[in-house]
Amino acid sequence: MVITRHAKARAVLDDSRYVPPPVRQDGREGTLAWLRARVSRFSSGPAHARRRALLTERLATLDPAALRQAARTVTLERQGDWRGVPTAVLGAALGVADTSPVADAASGYLSGQESPASDAAVAALLDQADVPAITLLLQAHASVEGLIANALTHLTPGADVESVLHETLRHDPPLHASRRLDQHTGDEVSIDLVAANRDPEVFAEPDRFDAARGPAPHLTFGTGLRPCPAPAHALALAAGVLEALIDGSTR
Ligand code: HEM
Prior knowledge:
- This protein has helices at 6-14, 32-36, 45-59, 64-77, 85-94, 102-109, 116-126, 131-152, 161-171, 193-196, 231-250; strands at 2-3, 18-19, 177-182, 188-192.
- By secondary structure, it is mostly helical.
- The protein has a single domain (2-250), classed as CATH 1.10.630.10.
- Strands 1-4-3-2 form a 4-stranded mixed β-sheet.
- A hairpin with a 5-residue loop joins strand 3 (177-182) and strand 4 (188-192).
- Helix 4 (64-77) crosses helix 5 (85-94).
- The protein starts with a strand and ends with a helix.
């Protein structure tokens, strides 16, 4: 079933009968499958509560303002070549010096698509960091870069970076769907975030990109029982990169 209405999407995300579809638990130690079996994102019940608590503890040690400043500085140092910057900045803050394996590990993290390259990347990350730090890097990588890429299509001279980011999150979310399994019926449910974020019952003129809208109740960071624990960190990394790109283009 695909859910496109905002209210129904919220109801599913609020209801503990819906859980993330389970992932295989028999992956060889140190592989992508092994990692996916150990992270908060794909677990439920007490394991999810325990793992999520470790992540929020780790996130609390990261200052969004410092991430923003670092993202800005590194983007300027790289003369606007911003791909990889959010991940490098987050990695440095988490004590992970070499973030070059993150892209390969992240490519199969959400989909479960396994490959020798993603397994090797996970092994290289495990040499440097624990599972919570790796989880944060893999969750952040594609979503923050996607947000920046989408925001760049709307960034006009003089625009307020935060306003553009908030409306980009609603209008052009970097992630298009969230999946759940109904534990009572065994049915899979897919929440269409693009459609829910443009539900006319919640958003006036939903198809219009309007940076003046302000923070809107979009579902791009999820909601309910297991929302993204890091919206402030995501926005800070993206804002730092965008500020540097604006600075660089006006010099
Ligand atoms: C624009 C950027 C981002 C978007 C749109 C986003 C969106 C989301 C969403 C929708 C979920 C819930 C998925 C679900 O259960 O269906 C989620 C979970 C998560 N996100 Fe984010 N995220 C972003 C950036 C980040 C960043 C920067 C971090 C870490 C620094 C992060 C860490 C996590 C973690 C650890 C979870 C799993 C939470 C749990 O298991 O309960 N995310 N994110």
